[in-house]
Amino acid sequence: MIGALRTRLDRQEVEMRAVLLENAELTHRLDEANAELRSLRASARATARHKASPPEGENRIVFASNEEWVRHEITMAWMRRFSPEDRLSQPLAGFIIGPEFGASVRALPCHLQAKVWRCAVDVATGRWRTCPALAAHPLRATAAAHAPDVVRAADGARCMRVSVEAHTPAARRMHFWLMTDGTVEFSRVVPHDNATA
Predict the structure, then answer these.
(1) Looking at the whole model, is its pTM more than 0.90?
(2) Cα–Cα distance, 10 to 14 (Å, whole number)
């Protein structure tokens, strides 16, 4: 009885050692596979970075001014957004770039800049008038409910405000001047609580 029990224990010990060896081998192979995966991911990221940024001087656009940069970005956003046929019914109207607009956009991270360009297309095509998501409204002189709209004395342009972002702290708003002839002048992009023209 004891001999049979010892034989059984010896067999179980041998089986357990075999399982432990197999487990150690599988753990080693898993570690090697994870290391190879990390290496492949790093290589893929490096390749993506290399493709995303052209070599110095190659295919790099150099803009003469913030205004030129802004006009380029708005035009490109418009072309990406609308098909050639839709561009006929959604043309970019004449617009002016105010002196602070480019700098206010450059100060934003890239993902917010992309939202600004989409919003600018809505403003430049006149879609801001019918798009509820933009929450377009005149900028008021004060926070009071019946405060007058902000109007530029020099030309009678009314300062308008549209949403670039929603449901986020310090959500960005775009201010633009609506001229009496319907032309828009992009003023700047500001946090929600900034109510100055």
Answers:
(1) no
(2) 6
